[in-house]
């Protein structure tokens, strides 16, 4: 079983694995490490990755891009409406306000959700990884942006389930980068942590985090982000040139999506050149619109002026991180940068100015995220043994819980997880209730998502006791390994309640222990944690209370109904089956197209060989014309009735053509290879004659030859020479349009037989020299006497 880490980017994806004691980034089917995040639909199959990007210019309406930023969102989301301007595919709204991506597939219009399209890309990554590793791939860790909310994380998990992947963890991209940095650092301190800033500026977002490293551990401190990236620089530059071309050449680009995409591609190349050139760079596009050639130029400083607002947003993001991490500049050890857009000189200068340090590029700027995800997958997978490394992540948003029902103040709530709380973790919320009630989880701060509600959980089957009193309900709220905030269970405690002690309490829990955090009553007062001086007393008191509680209470799990983000299990199962059917159809269509291409290639190849090629002299003109007619008929059939037929039809056509042409190919091969085989046989005869000549000269190396052997070898040479002369003459005189009178196999058989006979006689002397000589003393010894002497020597030793 192999494990992989996936960096799912808006522009491209990377996949890495742990093998041979290290981390290796896998190549895709184009021998490239980066797989474009493109999914296209062409005719009867899907095209995904590099192939989809290659045909993007001619099939834009059926090529889906930028779908990562649509995951888990509604159609009327302002963020979605902004993204739709950059996506050429038709997007429609569903009845439930979800997103429908419209494409032409299998001869009709199909509608896919962003989760389905993401699953298609993940399926492709899974297949290429399996081919590269020559093993089945199931377990994986997928990296996601730190700003993803519950809705987006759940959508990504649903996409992975549709693709048949077992996601061990959704890992924040910044955490993956930090793990990639710290795992191989052997000189980390044991006590005072090393604080490192990581800046990841990619195609569509800027993410920055602060991380503290100690030996074998990393702890995320804080993070910040802004959805500004390399594509925003491209758009700013393209807008500038579009206005210039409109003024100079009187051409409109804004409403021409094809030429707009072409312009974006050209300015992206210019932007990359600016990273290494501080000169005025030209922009020349031939036949841009209406056969008009356009040209312009731009200097790096002009680009920086155009993108000044973007650079200010990036600077604000970095400054906010300094505030939230509570680190002074002196406490920062280094600043590591990753992501393609950090190659922009202005971004580098900005980072160095804010943090007062020269940026470090010790990490692979493109592959650091996937490598960190692969390490995390190896750490979690039972199939691999990896050196222990502890990772403490954070929940980036503050989360509060509100509850309803009799027994609490109306609108009661508590912040259950503050911003940058460590994760995974869980907390216990104890409420006194005597009837069912509903808990709501929501983000209590500004988030890049229009709806702050995470979900609603209704705790059922709660009734008052015989005296009509309240019961204690313990609710477990958890941040799981995927960064999802969920309610995982509710427990009813049967005990004699003291009304004066009834309250709403909140506790941290972990896998090892439960740590009392705060107790908040209905008036909002919070009791602090016990002081260190009273720790032993509190432990003893808590132990006595626990023992008393165990004797006087019973616990029962309560049923929970919930309403939150994500696809229901039944629908997920149906989508998984649909994805499997599409994958099977893709494989079948690929097989069909390969058969069609093989037939077409064979027609072209054989026709060129028959008409003036090396087969021309080995076939009668009438037969050649007949075969060429058949080839032409097949070619016409391929472009007419056979343009979209089934696999078997192509295979049958190819079989009939090969049945007709293979004998001609075999004839041509014999006439081409026989001269070489005759030369080989002639050299074998010459070698044998040389051996016999040396024997007759009395050379020592042939002194072991007997007279009978020399006669037999000479006889073999004469017979082989006669066979050679006879068949060489037949070969020379044969018409090239008839079958060769002798084939290559026969000639090589004669050569091998002669050489084998001669070598067996030569090698007999080597065998004789290797036989050990037996001395006369040993030969005359009675075996029984030898055995007795050995037994006596053995007894003396013991």
The appropriate CATH architecture of the largest domain is: 2-Layer Sandwich
The overall number of domains is: 5
Kindly report the name of the CATH homologous superfamily of the largest domain: ATPase, nucleotide binding domain
Uncertain runs are: 499-503, 509-542, 769-781, 794-798
How is the main sheet built? Answer: 7 strands, antiparallel
Roughly what percent helix?
Answer: 40-55%
Determine the strand fraction and express it as a percent band.
15-25%
Sheet/helix structural class: alpha+beta
User: What is the 3D shape?
Assistant: elongated
Helical region count?
19
For the residues shown, what is the average pLDDT? Answer: 86
Q: What radius of gyration results from the CA coordinates?
A: 39 Å
Distance between the termini: 56 Å
What is the number of strand segments? 32
Strand order of the largest sheet: 30-29-28-23-26-27-31
CATH topology of the largest domain: Nucleotidyltransferase, domain 5
CATH top-level class of the largest domain: Alpha Beta
């Amino acid at each position: 079983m192999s494990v992989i880490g996936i960096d799912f980017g808006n522009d491209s994806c990377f996949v890495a694995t742990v093998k041979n004691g290290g981390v290796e980034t896998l190549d895709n089917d184009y021998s490239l490490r980066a797989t474009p995040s493109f999914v296209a639909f062409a005719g009867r199959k899907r095209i995904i990755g590099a192939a989809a990007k290659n045909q993007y210019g001619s099939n834009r309406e059926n090529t889906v891009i930028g779908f990562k930023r649509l995951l888990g969102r509604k159609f009327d989301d302002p963020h979605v409406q902004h993204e739709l301007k950059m996506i050429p595919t038709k997007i429609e709204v569903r009845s439930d306000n979800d997103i429908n991506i419209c494409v032409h597939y299998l001869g009709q219009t199909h509608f896919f959700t962003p989760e389905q399209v993401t699953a298609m890309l993940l399926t492709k990554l899974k297949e290429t990884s399996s081919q590269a590793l020559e093993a089945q791939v199931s377990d994986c860790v997928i990296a996601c942006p730190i700003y993803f909310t519950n809705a987006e994380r759940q959508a990504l998990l649903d996409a992975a389930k549709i693709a048949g992947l077992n996601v061990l963890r959704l890992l924040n991209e910044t955490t993956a980068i930090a793990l990639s940095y710290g795992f191989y650092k052997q000189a980390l301190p044991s006590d005072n942590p090393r604080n490192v800033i990581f800046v990841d500026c990619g195609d569509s977002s800027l993410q920055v985090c602060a991380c503290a490293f100690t030996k074998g551990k990393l702890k995320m401190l804080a993070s910040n982000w802004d959805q500004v990236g390399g594509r925003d620089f491209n758009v700013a530059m393209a807008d500038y040139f579009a206005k210039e071309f409109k003024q100079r050449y009187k051409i409109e680009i804004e409403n021409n999506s094809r030429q707009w995409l072409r312009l974006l591609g050209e300015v992206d190349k210019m932007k990359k050149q600016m990273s290494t050139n501080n000169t005025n760079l030209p922009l020349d596009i031939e036949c841009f619109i209406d056969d008009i050639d356009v040209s312009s130029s731009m200097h790096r400083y002009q680009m920086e002026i155009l993108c000044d607002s973007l650079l200010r947003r990036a600077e604000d993001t970095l400054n906010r991180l300094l505030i939230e991490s509570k680190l002074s500049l002196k406490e920062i050890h280094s600043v590591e940068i990753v992501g393609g857009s950090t190659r922009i000189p202005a971004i580098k200068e900005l980072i160095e100015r804010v943090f007062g340090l020269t940026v470090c590029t010790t990490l692979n700027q493109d592959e650091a995220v996937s490598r960190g995800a692969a390490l995390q997958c190896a750490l979690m997978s039972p199939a691999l043994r990896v050196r222990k490394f502890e990772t403490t992540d954070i929940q980036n948003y503050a989360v509060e819980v509100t509850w309803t029902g009799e027994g609490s103040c109306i609108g009661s709530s508590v912040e259950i997880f503050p911003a940058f709380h460590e994760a995974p973790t869980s907390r216990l919320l104890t409420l006194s209730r005597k009837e069912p009630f509903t808990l709501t989880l929501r983000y209590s701060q500004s988030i890049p998502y229009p709806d702050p509600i995470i979900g609603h959980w209704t705790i059922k089957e709660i009734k008052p006791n015989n005296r009509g009193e309240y019961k204690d309900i313990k609710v477990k709220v958890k941040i799981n390994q995927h960064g999802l905030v969920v309610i995982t269970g509710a427990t009813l405690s049967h005990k004699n309640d003291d009304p004066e002690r009834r309250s709403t309490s909140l506790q941290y829990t972990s896998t090892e222990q439960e740590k009392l955090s705060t107790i908040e009553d209905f008036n909002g007062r919070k009791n602090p944690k016990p002081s260190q001086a009273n720790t032993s007393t509190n432990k003893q008191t808590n132990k006595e209370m626990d023992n008393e509680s165990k004797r006087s209470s019973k616990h029962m799990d309560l049923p929970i109904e919930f309403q939150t983000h994500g696809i229901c299990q039944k629908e997920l199962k149906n989508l998984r089956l649909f994805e499997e059917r599409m994958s099977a159809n893709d494989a079948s269509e690929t097989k069909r197209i390969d058969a069609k291409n093989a037939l077409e290639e064979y027609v072209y190849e054989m026709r060129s060989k028959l008409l003036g090629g090396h087969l021309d002299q080995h076939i009668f003109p009438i037969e050649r014309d007949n075969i060429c007619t058949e080839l032409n008929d097949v070619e016409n059939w391929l472009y007419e009735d056979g343009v979209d037929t089934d696999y078997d039809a192509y295979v049958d056509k190819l079989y009939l053509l090969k049945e007709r042409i293979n004998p001609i190919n075999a004839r041509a091969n014999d006439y081409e290879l026989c001269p070489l085989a005759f030369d080989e046989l002639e050299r074998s005869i010459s070698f044998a004659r040389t051996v016999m000549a040396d024997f007759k000269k009395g050379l020592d190396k042939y002194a072991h030859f007997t007279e009978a052997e020399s006669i037999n070898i000479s006889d073999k040479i004469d017979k082989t020479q006669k066979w050679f002369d006879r068949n060489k003459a037949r070969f020379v005189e044969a018409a090239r349009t008839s079958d060769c009178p002798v084939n290559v196999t026969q000639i090589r058989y004669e050569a091998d037989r002669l050489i084998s006979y001669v070598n067996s006689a030569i090698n007999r002397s080597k065998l004789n020299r290797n036989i050990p000589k037996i001395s006369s003393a040993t030969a005359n010894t009675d075996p029984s006497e030898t055995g007795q002497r050995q037994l006596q020597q053995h007894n003396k030793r013991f």
